[in-house]
UniProtKB/TrEMBL annotation:
Pathway: Carbohydrate degradation; pentose phosphate pathway; D-ribose 5-phosphate from D-ribulose 5-phosphate (non-oxidative stage): step 1/1. Belongs to the ribose 5-phosphate isomerase family. It comes from Cohaesibacter celericrescens. The active site is at E104 (proton acceptor). This is Ribose-5-phosphate isomerase A. NCBIfam families: PRK00702.1, rpiA. Substrate binds at T27, G28, S29, T30, D82, G83, A84, D85, K95, G96, G97, G98, K122.
Length: 232
């Protein structure tokens, strides 16, 4: 069911895509539906170019015929469309469950607008049930870990930190050759303060908190598709 909702959300978001647009193209299982449907539209004559937010997405775009560009060639994009792990009423997001948060944030920030695509389960009142991904430099990991423990404890972390691993037990390494530490908060009461404090730690490359970036969320569920906008 949730796959159907993800596909419905992706299809509805494509209504915002016009001919000639430069797109940021997200990563994750919802974004897979987006890329597949976009590929069908391109085959039917839609002219767009896209910047993929991961190597995975780049490979899928190539497979389904979505033309790609880079932020070097095309530094300003019209629209980024991407999934999320959690969406709060102010349209602050937790992202990075798929490990691509840094490229996703760079691409979203280079876009005039960002639309989030998700099934209803991603919409929450308060962020934090989903562990917050934090992308860190491998260099100095021990020191970064201690600093993260201190900051996260100050902001009420309930569940502790975990270095993300692959199924084979090796460390997960991002497309940018960094590690990811997942912080299990349970509930984040000061989202903006936490983001600022985490970003002040030198070994932190980026956080999975997307604040003030997304302008709309296209959410699909049992009741159909709804378009959400940030609550003031
Ligand atoms: O941030 C992401 C990848 O880094 C994804 O957008 C996020 O994890 C949602 O993924 P899915 O669509 O598979 O639920």
């Amino acid at each position: 069911m949730s796959e159907e909702f993800k596909r419905e959300a992706a299809a509805a978001a494509l209504e915002f895509v016009n001919d000639g647009m430069k797109l940021g193209i997200g990563t994750g299982s919802t974004a897979v539906h987006l890329v597949e449907l976009l590929g069908q539209k391109v085959a039917a004559g839609l002219t767009v170019v896209g910047v993929p937010t991961s190597e995975r997405t780049a490979r899928l775009c190539e497979k389904v015929g979505v033309p790609l560009t880079t932020l070097e060639e095309t530094p300003q994009l019209d629209l980024a469309i991407d999934g999320a792990d959690e969406i709060d009423p102010q349209m602050r997001l937790i992202k990075g469950g798929g490990g691509s948060l840094l490229r996703e944030k760079i691409v979203a920030a280079a876009s005039k607008n960002m639309i989030v695509i998700a099934d209803q389960s991603k919409v929450v009142e308060t962020l934090g049930a989903f562990p917050l991904p934090i992308e860190v430099m491998p260099f100095g990991l021990g020191a970064t870990w201690v600093a993260l423990e201190n900051v996260c404890a100050r902001f009420g972390m309930q569940g502790g930190l975990a270095l993300r691993k692959k199924a084979d037990g090796e460390n997960f390494v991002t497309d940018g050759q960094h590690f990811i530490i997942d912080a299990s908060f349970g509930r984040i009461s000061d989202v903006d303060g936490l983001d600022m404090a985490l970003r002040a730690i030198p070994g932190v490359v980026e956080t999975g908190l997307f604040i003030g970036i997304a302008s709309k969320a296209v959410v699909a569920g049992k009741e159909g598709v709804v378009i959400l906008e940030p609550r003031a």
